[in-house]
Amino acid sequence: MRLLAGRYRTLLTLGAILVVVAVLMWVLSPDRFLSGPNLQSMAYQIPILGLFSLAMAVAMITGGINLSIISSAIVSGVAGALLLKSLVHAGMGAFQMTAAVTAAILVILGISVIIGALNGLIIGYAKVPAVLGSLATMTMLQGLAIGITKGGAVSGFPEAFQFIGLGVVGGVPLAFVLFLLFAVLLSLLLNRTPWGFSIYMIGSNERATLYSGINNRAILLRTYVLSGLLSGVAATIMTSQFDSIKASYGSAYLLQSILVALLGGVSASGGQGTVSGVVIGILILQCFSSGFNILGFSTFLTTAIWGLMLILAMVVSFVRERSVQTPSIV
Amino acid sequence: MRIASILKRHELYLIVIIALLSVLITSINHHFATLENLLDMLKLSSFTGVLAVGVLVVLLSGGIDLSFTAIATVAMYLMGSYILTFGGNLLVAILIVAVTGIVLGAINGVIVHKLEIPAIIVTLGTLSIFYGALMVIAQGRDIYNLPQWFRDFAKLNLVSWRNVGGSTYGISIFLVIWAVVLAVTWALLRYASVGRGVFAIGGSPLAASRAGYRIGRIQLFVYCYIGMLSGIASMIHVGLVDQIAPHSIVGKELVVIAAVVLGGASLSGGKGSVLGTFLGVFLFAVIGNGLTLTRVTSYWQDAVTGIVLLLSILIAAFRERRREKSLVRVNVEEGKAKA
Known about the structure:
The structure holds two protein chains of two kinds. Chain A is mainly α. Chain A has a domain at about 40-250. Chain A has 13 helices and four strands. In chain A, the strands form two sheets. Chain A has a two-stranded antiparallel sheet with strand order 1-4. A two-stranded antiparallel sheet of chain A has the order 2-3. The two termini of chain A are about 20 Å apart. By secondary structure, chain B is mainly alpha-helical. Chain B has a single domain (about 15-20, about 35-320), classed as ABC transporter involved in vitamin B12 uptake, BtuC, CATH 1.10.3470. Helices cover about 75% and strands about 5% of the residues of chain B. In chain B, strand 1 (about 155-160) and strand 2 (about 170) form a beta hairpin. Chain B is globular. The relative contact order of chain B is 0.17.
């Protein structure tokens, strides 16, 4: 019961921060922040970083981290894009086009799952620390992406594929609907399944989890596959929305996805974090980001501010954890 | 016993791999096995090499630093701006990069210790802060027209020879700096009490603090040390490329960490050696140089680097587990555990 109250308190705090940030941005730029075009561009930008943040959060809840999500997305995106370019030709029928786009999506998701499994094997089975294991796959995947594309971009996809990232369904961008769908699914998985429960347990105490009869290695493997899959969905939306894919894309997302996860209440040492927290985290970050954009901040200033926020978020969670922990020791 | 323990050492594996690769590359391109190519390779690695020594010390203490590339960038930019505006000399330049590095490193050290935040997140944050702030102030401008005395310094050779073509090559001053950094760090880790402290807190912070080591001070030292070395490395970088481009270093942090890990350092602290770090950097240099000399397209160099890194950490992980298993067996024989 107290745990439940604590959880809602975190969400409430985050919600309050979100309202304050949104109001602040609205005051600073009253005619533009809440304007239709700005809200719409936010709805297009949220899904990609949001899915990356969920992919990062899942790994962090197990007490690990997944530094390879962005490079994994690039490699799978490049593979899907190349396949799509080779399949699509002028005068294709609607059915063939649908088949080609479906194949490309399946390749992107499939490669993401394979990369996730590779991470899971390295981290869960070979017991390499997650930072190091995902760092190694990240380096390798980045190199692979540069090698395959020779540093250039793969671009120009059919409209049917662009619809995933740019299409609108019932007035809402399809990408945003996809993001919400995966957030809900992930939330159900974490809260309502034994697998989800084990993810939290491993993050809290790996050894105790093992002794309580849970196959840690298999759980970690599946969790990194899940993390890979989420980054694969992000890759599909990103490739489609940018209408191109390149090895150097999305490098800023790595820091930001860690920041969003931490902002959203995911603990850096594992065992804590909720999907709703991460979703509010991404909304907060997006409000800042759009606000800075409207105010004309340079990307470098924004980078510096993200760094500062990252450390502040950690300080806040440090103080909060201390205040929560102290009474329980007594 | 002594020989057996030497044979098991990680460094030996690296030497064997480097030797095998060297034979392979030489058989394809004879230019590889010349003194000129060797010295050239070492000179170009001296920048990464000095950074790697700093990373080693941080890893030994159980920490990690991702912000050293940003520290190096800030240091070289401050140095460049100063010597272009006020003149100055070599000593001033060295002083500026070293002090900048130490100050920025101290910020990392204080945050890591006082706030007990994981070092990877602190330094990921300060990486963005240092770099972002510099780019806002400098507005991304490059500095080209370095003074002549600095260029002369960069071309300085300890000993030099002439090759068949008539151009000179030799033991660069940067190679000397790298050697001094290696030697000083080795001595520091082996003989100084702070060096022992680095190993101690990396092995077990709790045990180290019970044994009387002051964790906060050692952590401060460690982050200041890598900061200082980043500053010195940034000067080497400026000398090698003959310009100061603020975006030229940031992004290379993982490659440097990879070289140190390849050299046998553990990310969980307490394990690693100066020799291993040198060999790790050298192995990457051999791979890079070899890929160029055997005309493999440069686009695949990063992928090869990543694969080598992945294989090396997997091998290290399996060796670690075999060691753990053998430890359990000892316990069983002594009747302490029933497995």
